[in-house]
Amino acid sequence: MAEAVAKVARRINATVEEGRDHLDLSNCQLISFPDGVFKVLKNVSENIRTITLADNEMKAISSKFFSTFTQLRELDLHGNVLTKLPDSVEEMEHLTSINLANNKFSSFPDKLTEIASLERIDLEGNSITEIPVEKLSSMPAMKWLNVKLNPLDQSTQSALKSLHKFDILSTMES
After folding, report:
1. What is the mean pLDDT of residues 70-86?
2. C-alpha distances in angstroms, 106 versus 9, 45, 48, 139?
3. pTM of the entire structure?
4. CB contact at 8 A, 121 and 145
5. Which range (11-20, 22-31, 147-156) has the least confidence?
6. What DSSP string runs through 149-174?
7. Residue 163, class by beta-carbon neighbours within 10 Å (0-12 exposed, 13-18 middle, 19+ buried)?
8. Strand pairing partners for 81?
């Protein structure tokens, strides 16, 4: 555990000291985004464009995360145990890409459809059965959706087949 804490500290210090626009806290055994990180990154949070929290053990992500990193463009949360996102995710007006693959979502995070700038959503390997196809089709910037390895119901699969506005990766029979 001490090694994981030291890894987090090193990566945060590098982001602050080198004025990086990204923060990589992947593979750090995190169960949540550490509260102390908000304080350390307070003066540089506006500069951070990409955050990777992949391959941790995060069960939830707080509203404070989204209200702190308001300029975020890319967020990688794959390989955690998330089941939902806070409603405040819809306030991420600059977010273009979110990776939620291999988590524990059983329903599509609807608030994602409120983010006009969002181009890419990766939800591969969750337990989602239904997708709000109509809402997705009205997303102005949407270019790519990955819903492979989800137990999509028949009506969702049919609706996805008729959607040609952007690229869709799914595990459907032809």
Report:
1. 97
2. 33, 31, 30, 22
3. 0.94
4. yes
5. 11-20
6. TS---HHHHHHHHT--SSEEE-----
7. middle
8. none
